[in-house]
Input
Amino acid sequence: MSMFTGLSAFPLTPLGDDVVDEAAYAGLITRLREAGVDSITALGSTGSYAYLSRQERRLVARTAVENAGSVPVFAGIGAMRTSQVQALADDAQDAGVAGVLLAPLGYQALTEDDVFGLYEDVTSGLSVPLIVYDNPGTTHFTFTTELYGRIAALPNVASIKIPGVPVDPAAARDRVAEIREVLPPHVTIGVSGDPSAASGLIAGCDAWYSVIAGTLPPPALALVRAAQAGRQDEARRASERLAPLWDLFAQFGGSLRVVSAIAEHLGLVRPRSLPLPIRGLDQAERACVIAVVEELGLA
Output
């Protein structure tokens, strides 16, 4: 079975006094390994990769690999310039990662040719597989299905991380089938956008690239294992149970601030763990998050 299936957990990269908290990060990785996730993706959007220096990212990749045991580690390598991406890819490979994750970052609006050229240049120098990261909410670039196909034909491309699928089950199946049609057989499809996880897996996605699993792996694993076993109603119920969390993601402008508040509440990371200028949730907002965590029995 491909490494790029099942549950890939995206942990935070916690800071303390504007420095990567290596001990807390190692603890997060150990926790994921012991929970039994299928892979760990360090330096994803939840890992605040765009806010970290090259030296910090090298440290994070190394720490993840050292503490993951036999669990495959993938590392984000997105940066503004192709040469920077290639240097980060070298660092990640030197750290021993099993794969890399690349989103097309840009200040100037990128064209499809720009993005294809980025993946063409980067994949030509890789010795590990690559996940294509389609995250229009942060990159402001939207992949077309045709572009998925062009990039998937490049060497070393192993998976496409897609945004959430449509809510309607038939539309979700059609969307996944449409993407599948342009991909080589070895390239997997991973759904992101945690509220869409059950719908995406039931519609035929191979993996869930999960924010919440990086901090709360057990409920995410329950959802994935039910979907993998064909227990669709159980997978849907697992997602519905977490709906109060999904609502918090929408209410507070995304998942990062919510999961950092959860990790801080559980004592997994120190307070004010996010990179400034991201200030996290205020006291009242944190109280809402804590109430949901306790109501769902996630503490």
In short: The beta strands are 6-9, 15-16, 19-20, 39-42, 73-76, 99-102, 130-133, 157-162, 188-191, 207-210. The domain at 6-231 is CATH 3.20.20.70 (TIM Barrel).
